[in-house]
């Protein structure tokens, strides 16, 4: 039980050598750590079996005192899993199977690198030995992902050794309004999609009358292709718990809830472990660190409805009711969970908070653009060489993300579009590749930041069919509460299906545009308000493809099955 700040510091010092040796910050050349990714992607590719086989091989060779095997969170390079990294050198092995374990351990024992398991640059085809030499990692700046791939997420001592819970200790030495002022000065905006200033949200909650108050972590990440929040929970759950505790202290809450999808079993399991560990350590519960502050956290499982990512629908779901949004005001900070003041932040937002408190708002605000500070985590998916998770400073351009970090388009194909913001976002063409990723620039371009999903499309993708795909998702996920969303998305989908089957008319294009704007303006919540974005953005940038489908009865990408015959030109 940690009952004081000095005790927390003592435990940090006790476990610091383990991390220092791993990161080569002290002379510990005799000890090697093999970190194996235990995120969802690598786990599904066999990382658990690999980890067990590595341990057997270490024991078989009598290396127990010199070589240790740990599980860790996602490195981000999900396409290449299972991934194992040997520290302190940082030798990066990818697509490692349990059959490779003997070679890896023998290599570690004899200082020999297993060349066939090294990463190969997709452009040069040259093998790269060290993690820090891979371009995918070089351009990144990891804050929310700072501990993913570095610590064992199931060991609170490793988190404490990485300055974990130091920010909470620092916060408890200050007045709540000073914490809110620091978060406000940092410029941190909600990473869940809307980008509302976090400090302002906390200030509204702190000023709201009534008790009890609640802090809710929104971990209902349902965008197709998005896994940022899930990976943070799997790789560094304590950073989210610490962020929630700081939010509770700043806003006057004593109870927190994490609303997470039941379909994320690894994230749920690590969260449960982390909460138990934090309670046993006295970092959750009564009189934390002897400072008189009490705060606890419970988990609430969601059934996987996309609309429950909307904050008012999420709150109803926690209350045990059907997850449907309600009109605002009142806002959750005024009347949220069970009618009490509630602040809702998403996983990535909360994971940033401890670093801001520890390193200061000026440091955080020094990164990013005028209106969007700090960094943002994106999940790269679709037609891109380096599928995975990245964290870059706000203001990094789409071109840098897709071609420098993402490695460009596979198979020599031509880039066509990038969808930002998931099903609620827009599709941006090649001429928009130099758009910086910040909230305002993306909105001006006709898309949104969203939670950070980023799906790349090549010349083989049909943009009309892409709009149909996302509309089908939004229509399926509509809760049906308000007519514009329930009926409007259904009608939009009918029109898109008509066009992609070759039965559309030119009048349909105008109808699509008008109805999309009506649905955006009249829907009750963010799902309906953003559902037409894929249609409007593709009409804006790829209208010629719609016209080809309607006028020429031809799909230029060859995707729509009824429209593959090229028109005869006279």
From TrEMBL:
<dbReference type="InterPro" id="IPR011538">
    <property type="entry name" value="Nuo51_FMN-bd"/>
</dbReference>
<keyword id="KW-0479">Metal-binding</keyword>
<dbReference type="InterPro" id="IPR036249">
    <property type="entry name" value="Thioredoxin-like_sf"/>
</dbReference>
<dbReference type="InterPro" id="IPR001949">
    <property type="entry name" value="NADH-UbQ_OxRdtase_51kDa_CS"/>
</dbReference>
<dbReference type="InterPro" id="IPR037207">
    <property type="entry name" value="Nuop51_4Fe4S-bd_sf"/>
</dbReference>
<keyword id="KW-0004">4Fe-4S</keyword>
<comment type="similarity">
    <text>Belongs to the complex I 51 kDa subunit family.</text>
</comment>
<dbReference type="GO" id="GO:0050583">
    <property type="term" value="F:hydrogen dehydrogenase (NADP+) activity"/>
</dbReference>
<dbReference type="Pfam" id="PF01257">
    <property type="entry name" value="2Fe-2S_thioredx"/>
</dbReference>
<feature type="domain" description="NADH-ubiquinone oxidoreductase 51kDa subunit iron-sulphur binding">
    <location>
        <begin position="464"/>
        <end position="509"/>
    </location>
</feature>
<dbReference type="GO" id="GO:0010181">
    <property type="term" value="F:FMN binding"/>
</dbReference>
<dbReference type="Pfam" id="PF01512">
    <property type="entry name" value="Complex1_51K"/>
</dbReference>
<keyword id="KW-0408">Iron</keyword>
<dbReference type="InterPro" id="IPR019575">
    <property type="entry name" value="Nuop51_4Fe4S-bd"/>
</dbReference>
<keyword id="KW-0411">Iron-sulfur</keyword>
<dbReference type="GO" id="GO:0051539">
    <property type="term" value="F:4 iron, 4 sulfur cluster binding"/>
</dbReference>
<dbReference type="InterPro" id="IPR037225">
    <property type="entry name" value="Nuo51_FMN-bd_sf"/>
</dbReference>
<protein>
    <submittedName>
        <fullName>NADP-reducing hydrogenase subunit HndC</fullName>
        <ecNumber>1.12.1.3</ecNumber>
    </submittedName>
</protein>
<dbReference type="GO" id="GO:0046872">
    <property type="term" value="F:metal ion binding"/>
</dbReference>
<dbReference type="GO" id="GO:0008137">
    <property type="term" value="F:NADH dehydrogenase (ubiquinone) activity"/>
</dbReference>
<keyword id="KW-0560">Oxidoreductase</keyword>
<dbReference type="Pfam" id="PF10589">
    <property type="entry name" value="NADH_4Fe-4S"/>
</dbReference>
């Amino acid at each position: 039980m940690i009952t004081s700040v000095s005790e927390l510091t003592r435990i940090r010092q006790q476990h610091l050598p383990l991390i220092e040796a791993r990161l080569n910050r002290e002379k510990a050349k005799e000890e090697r750590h093999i970190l194996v990714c235990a995120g969802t992607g690598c786990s599904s590719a066999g990382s658990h079996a690999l980890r067990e086989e590595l341990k057997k091989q270490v024991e078989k060779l009598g290396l127990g005192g010199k070589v240790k095997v740990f599980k860790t969170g996602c490195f981000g390079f999900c396409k290449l899993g299972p991934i194992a990294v040997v520290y302190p050198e940082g030798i990066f092995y990818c697509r490692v199977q349990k059959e490779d374990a003997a070679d890896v351990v023998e290599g570690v024992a004899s200082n020999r690198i297993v060349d066939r398991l090294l990463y190969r640059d997709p452009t040069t085809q040259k093998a790269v030995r060290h993690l820090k030499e891979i371009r995918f990692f070089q351009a990144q700046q990891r804050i929310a992902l700072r501990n993913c791939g570095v610590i064992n997420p199931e060991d609170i001592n490793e988190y404490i050794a990485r300055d974990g819970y130091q920010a909470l200790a620092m916060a408890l030495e200050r007045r709540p309004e000073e914490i809110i002022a620091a978060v406000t000065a940092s410029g941190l905006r909600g990473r869940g999609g809307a980008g509302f200033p976090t400090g302002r949200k906390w200030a509204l909650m702190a000023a709201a009358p009534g008790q009890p108050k609640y802090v809710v972590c929104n971990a209902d990440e349902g965008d197709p292709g998005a896994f940022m929040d899930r990976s943070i929970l799997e790789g560094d759950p304590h950073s989210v718990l610490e962020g929630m505790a700081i939010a509770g202290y700043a806003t006057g809450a004593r109870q927190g809830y994490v609303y997470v999808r039941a379909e994320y079993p690894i994230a749920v399991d690590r969260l449960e472990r982390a909460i138990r560990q934090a309670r046993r350590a006295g970092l959750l519960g009564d009189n934390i660190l002897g400072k008189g502050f009490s705060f606890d956290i419970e988990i609430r499982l969601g059934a996987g409805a996309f609309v429950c990512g909307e904050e008012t629908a999420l709150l109803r779901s926690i209350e045990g009711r059907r997850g449907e949004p309600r009109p605002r005001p009142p806002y959750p900070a005024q009347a949220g969970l069970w009618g009490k003041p509630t602040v809702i932040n998403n996983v990535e937002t909360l994971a940033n908070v401890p670093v801001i408190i520890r390193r200061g708002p000026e440091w955080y605000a020094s990164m990013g653009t005028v209106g969007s500070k700090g960094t943002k985590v994106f999940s790269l998916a679709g037609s891109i060489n380096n599928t995975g998770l990245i964290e870059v400073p706000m203001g990094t351009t789409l071109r840098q993300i897709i071609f420098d970090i993402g490695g460009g388009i596979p198979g020599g194909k031509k880039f066509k579009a990038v969808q930002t913001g998931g099903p609620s976002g827009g599709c941006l063409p090649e001429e928009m590749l130099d758009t910086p990723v910040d909230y305002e620039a993306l909105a001006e371009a006709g898309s949104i930041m969203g939670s950070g999903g980023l799906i790349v499309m090549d010349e083989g993708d049909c943009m009309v069919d892409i709009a149909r795909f996302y509309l089908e998702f939004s229509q399926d996920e509509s809760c049906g509460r308000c007519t514009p969303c329930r009926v409007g998305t259904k009608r939009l989908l009918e029109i898109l299906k008509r066009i992609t089957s070759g039965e559309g008319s030119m009048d349909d294009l105008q109808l699509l545009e008008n109805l999309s704007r009506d649905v955006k303006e009249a829907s009750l919540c963010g799902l309906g308000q953003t559902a037409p974005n894929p249609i409007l953005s593709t009409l804006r940038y790829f209208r010629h493809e719609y016209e080809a489908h309607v006028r020429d009865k031809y799909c230029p990408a060859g995707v729509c099955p009824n429209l593959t015959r090229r028109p005869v030109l006279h």
